[in-house]
Design brief:
The protein has 15 helices and 20 strands. Helix 1 crosses helix 3 and helix 3 packs across helix 6. This is UDP-N-acetylmuramoyl-tripeptide--D-alanyl-D-alanine ligase.
Length: 449
């Protein structure tokens, strides 16, 4: 970390410092919310959760080397400093903002209804060819994860890519106040979190809150193929930079070839140039992610060769369009999350692969009053695209099965009991649902099939 003293931290969060005057100048080495991760010099965040109260572990953290704790109530018999605050969660946001302001580097904020993580990884792969780049780890993209991501930025970071996820109005504003991006990248405005956001216009409004606290002279990198984003014609006195497959976009693609597991090849076209790349991932949608990264890289003065090497160094993470080959099946493990837009993109990928096409799809959460109609239309999309067999799981997904003329199951155990009779050697099987559906259990079952 860059030097960050207890005095600075207390001032940043407006907390009451309790401890010796000499310790006010002590610097921290990391910020941890998990007592098991404490090391010498750590700052411990005492957070009260649903099952565990971090305040119960403060003294243990002191023993493990923590130099200070942020807490809402004073620890008993504290022998080391602590900073008392009304809310530890609010405090960490203020501390994350203060730490971010120690850096004068390119920071890319990434959001959208679909493709946040894959675009973040693509940006990281490209920017890493020139800069020592920091990125969001795992799913740390919310109002606790974002400040933790900022606070883990190493002293010598030269660029950062921060994923920003929201589910309601106002959240993006709070995230952007911390991140203060110099580049704002938005992927797609889709049907997600409609329970809170109402419709796609609401999604657009919530996502574009990112622009409010962007740094002066920030660049706005938007998907010009998206009918909502293309309506954004000016932001803070600047014209957005549009990317997308359509040639109307300044950053667009030509000669796209989907080679299944061999990746997607295409020409990235911008500034009169044509960069031929082979993206090591399935799905034509990855081309848009590569274009977004090329736009940021180009604006940062990266060479064509650096951009090409970066795109071709991309790696998928977790259960996101991860291809698993077994002795009998090809599994597209994409069960991290789902909404109608992302499911349709995954279906497009499925039908481009070899073998009989099978889609195992589950409930998509937080879709609001139109949730049943959206499940039905998603099933119909699969049928119209030529998916050979659609199997759905969950109460909402019953409508999906109707739209697809597929089979419906109440739960994971029920479908797994019948999968051996339904699947054939050589099938390509897509597994996708909202994360709460725990479809990773189906993926694990299929691995042993």
């Amino acid at each position: 970390m860059k030097p960050f003293t207890l005095q600075e931290i207390a001032a940043a969060c407006g907390g009451t410092y309790v401890g010796s005057d000499e310790m006010k100048s002590a610097v921290i080495t990391s910020v941890e919310r998990d007592s098991r991760m404490i090391k010498d010099g750590s700052l411990f965040l005492a957070i009260k959760g649903g099952r565990v109260d971090g305040h119960d572990f403060i003294n243990k953290c002191y023993e493990s080397g923590a130099v200070c704790a942020i807490c809402e109530k004073a620890p008993e018999n504290a022998e080391k400093p602590y900073i008392l605050v009304p809310s530890t969660l609010d405090a960490v946001k203020k501390i994350g903002k203060a730490y971010r302001e120690k850096f004068d580097i390119p920071i890319v904020g990434v959001s959208g209804s679909v493709g946040k993580t894959s675009t973040k990884e693509m940006l990281y792969a490209v920017l890493s060819q020139k800069f020592k780049t920091h990125k969001t780890q795992g799913n740390l993209n919310n109002e606790l994860g974002v400040p933790l991501t900022l606070l883990s930025m190493p002293e010598d970071a030269e660029a950062a890519v921060i994923e920003m996820g929201i589910s309601g109005f106002g959240e993006m504003t709070r995230l952007t106040e911390m991140v203060q991006p110099t580049f704002c990248v938005l992927t797609i405005i889709g049907c997600c979190h409609l329970e809170n956001l109402g419709d796609r216009d609401g999604v657009l409004k919530a996502k574009t809150e990112m622009f409010k606290s962007a740094r002066d002279n920030a660049e706005y990198i938007l998907n010009g193929d998206d009918d909502k984003l293309v309506t954004v014609t000016e932001v803070n006195g600047k014209k957005p930079v549009f990317f997308g497959i359509s040639e109307k976009n300044p950053y667009h693609a030509e000669n796209i070839e989907n080679n299944g597991e061999g990746g997607v090849s295409c020409d990235l076209c911008f500034d009169g140039k044509r960069l031929h790349v082979v993206i090591p991932a399935i799905g034509t949608y990855m081309v848009s992610n590569a274009l977004a990264a090329a736009a940021v890289g180009n604006l940062l003065g990266m060479t064509d060769d650096e951009i090409i090497r970066g795109v071709e160094a991309f790696k998928t993470v977790g259960s996101r369009a991860n291809v698993i080959n077994t002795a009998r099946l090809k599994i597209i493990d994409d069960c991290y999350n789902a909404n109608p837009t992302s499911v349709q993109a995954s279906i497009d990928t499925l039908v481009n692969l070899t073998g009989r096409k099978v889609a195992i799809l589950g409930d998509m959460k937080e879709l609001g009053s139109e949730e049943l109609a959206l499940h039905y239309s998603t099933g119909k999309y699969a049928k119209d695209k030529g998916v050979d067999l659609v199997l759905s799981v969950g109460p909402l997904a019953k409508e999906l099965a109707k739209g697809a003329d597929g089979l419906w199951y109440a739960g994971i155990e029920a479908i797994c009991a019948e999968l051996p009779q339904l699947l054939k050697s050589g099938d390509t099987v897509l597994v996708k649902a909202s994360h709460s559906m725990q479809f990773e259990k189906i993926t694990e079952f299929l691995k042993e099939f």
